[in-house]
Amino acid sequence: MMVGHRGGDLRHQERCFSRVLHWIPSSFKFSQLGLASILKQSRLIVPPNQRNYSWTKEEVTTLLQDFARSIGSEDTPYFVGTIVTIRKGNDVLEVVDGQQRLATTAIRSFHT
To answer: What domain range includes position 21?
Structure first.
């Protein structure tokens, strides 16, 4: 399973995303934040309708290996995938998509 994307894949995703934007009402606000910013500056809540944490050891290993490779290479940014949240307060974000990646990263950051 490929968790992240590099280089050309990221550019392709950006093009696809920009095509979708014209269908979204103007009341929606988007912001591009780094994963570290989300984890440090926000309190994340997971609504009851989200599935429980279910990643296997292999999926966790893949994500962590991808992180390690990206740290060693400053050529291209690492794209961990889109994480969708809904702002519920000044520093509170409700996770809509990306829960498994966020949880894995948060758990790992507390155990280093």
So the answer is: 8-110
For residue 105, what is the enclosing H or E element? Answer: helix 99-110
Q: Which residues contact 66 (CB under 8 A, 6 or more apart)?
A: 3, 4, 78
Cβ neighbours of 14 (radius 10 Å): 11
Q: Summarize pLDDT for 57-105 with one digit per residue, the tens.
A: 999 999 888 888 887 777 767 778 888 888 888 889 899 998 999 889 8
Residue 76 inside a domain? The answer is: yes
pTM value? 0.64
Contacts of 10 by beta carbon, 8 Å cutoff, 6+ apart: 76, 77, 79
DSSP 6-42: -THHHHHHHHHHHHHHTTS-TT-------HHHHHHH-
Number of domains observed in the structure of the chain: 1
Cα separation, 88 vs 45, in Å, equals 9
Residue 2 falls inside a structural domain: no
